[in-house]
Design a protein that fits this description.
The protein is α+β, with helices and mostly antiparallel strands. It contains nine helices and 18 strands. It has a six-stranded mixed β-sheet with strand order 4-3-2-1-5-6, with helices on both faces. β5, α4 and β6 form a beta-alpha-beta unit. It is elongated, with a radius of gyration of 23 Å. The termini are far apart. Bound molecules: zinc ion (3 copies).
């Protein structure tokens, strides 16, 4: 699995004129070699020359975490006091100077980028995502299966919320978020990525942090939750879902807006067929909200890709004319945010298949009314 992925990476490096791929913190590293770096100040870096063996440079004290895969990479460890940048430089192709193009992981610490630039004349950088994103975007069957089981897990959690099994009234957002977080782990995720619990006017902020605000009867609560579920090769795959519930019957204004939101989301899912440009899917969903008069309250892109990262490519956004392809997996999540008053969002993860869009999240899309 990792060998094949590195072959794909090297093919793209050849096309893009990249001499070496340098992967550090972030999701590219586990995707291509099964190891996830600790995102700390000690350097971990997979050095993948276009030709020849790859090397994983890791701190000595973290080496016990590495599952060795000699057919994928050699291991080079460094101890505190030694120079890890030198270990990387030693493994770069093409001598000590002269032009060398390295594709470096997008989430690599800026400090390491500076050190590498200073240590190797002629070195220039491009983003690793140029090489890795087109590969990671296309999920195989095993990856879709992992994403499906992650989606089913968060479906179970939010269907309990929709059924009124999680008490809300009189509790703070933080309390409810803690309970949901524990459920994310109970349902098989190895990691909680985010738990947004946004009540009443707080939902007008799309990325609201759960607060000490007490949830009251007569208002809505937005839940946007996700975690990472172990998948093929021990690499994690993410879940991400948004649903809204209302404590007691909603007012007409809110209910009407919700119906528009639901229609917009359904239209976006239906539009997500193979060959349709990403920006077109965004436009289809957005048009529904614009025609219902909510266009100016939909302040973000329609969706993002998902896989080993909660947010990856492809983005469903104006300006991205990439056509959807078999195995692309992405969110469809329109929202309406009325500042200081209320907000709502509806989000499913969807796979582009030969038979059309396949939503992985299957629970009720209507506004669930709960009584406590
Ligand atoms: Zn978001
Ligand atoms: Zn999302
Ligand atoms: Zn989300």
């Amino acid at each position: 699995m990792f060998e094949e992925r590195l072959v794909l990476a090297r093919n793209r490096m050849a096309v893009d004129g990249v001499d070496v791929l340098l992967l550090s913190a972030g999701a590219d590293l586990p995707y291509f070699c099964g190891y996830e770096a600790m995102p700390l100040e000690r350097l971990t870096m997979l050095v993948v020359p276009r030709e020849g063996q790859a090397t994983l440079v890791v701190p000595h004290l973290e080496a016990p975490r590495v599952v060795e895969r000699p057919d994928v990479f050699d291991l080079a460890t460094w101890r505190d006091g030694e120079d890890p940048i030198g270990l990387v430089i030693d493994r770069l192709p093409g001598g000590w100077n002269g032009k060398l193009v390295a594709a470096i992981g997008d989430q690599t610490w800026g400090g390491f980028v500076v050190d590498l630039l200073n240590a190797r004349p002629g070195l220039s950088f491009t983003r690793a995502s140029k090489v890795t994103a087109p590969i990671r975007m296309v999920k195989d069957e095993a990856e879709v299966k992992a994403l499906r089981s992650a989606a089913a897990a968060v479906d179970r959690i939010l269907s309990e919320v929709q059924a009124g099994e999680v008490p809300l009234a009189g509790r703070t957002e933080v309390e409810v978020a803690a309970q949901i977080g524990r459920r994310i782990l109970d349902e098989g995720h190895s990691r909680i990525n985010f738990v947004i619990v946004a009540s009443g006017p707080n939902a007008a902020s799309p990325h609201h942090e759960p607060s000490e605000r007490e949830i009251r009867f007569g208002e809505s609560v937005l839940f946007d939750i996700g975690g990472t579920m172990p998948g093929p090769g021990g690499v994690g795959y993410c879940s991400d879902i948004t649903r809204c519930v209302h404590l007691g019957e909603p007012q007409t204004e809110f209910a009407d807006a919700y119906e528009a939101l639901r229609a917009s989301q359904a239209a976006g899912v239906m539009a997500a067929t193979i060959g349709t440009p990403c920006e077109e899917v965004d436009a289809v969903s957005r048009r529904v909200l614009e025609e219902a008069g909510y266009g100016r309250y939909f302040v973000h892109r329609l969706g993002h890709g998902i896989g080993v990262e909660a947010h990856e490519q492809p983005n469903l956004v104006a300006g991205n004319n990439l056509p959807l392809d078999l195995g692309h997996v992405f969110s469809v999540e329109p929202g309406i945010y009325v500042p200081d008053r209320w907000g709502m969002r509806l989000e499913d993860i969807v796979v582009a298949t030969a038979d059309g869009p396949d939503p992985l999240n299957r629970i009720e899309h209507g506004l669930a009314v709960v009584d406590a």
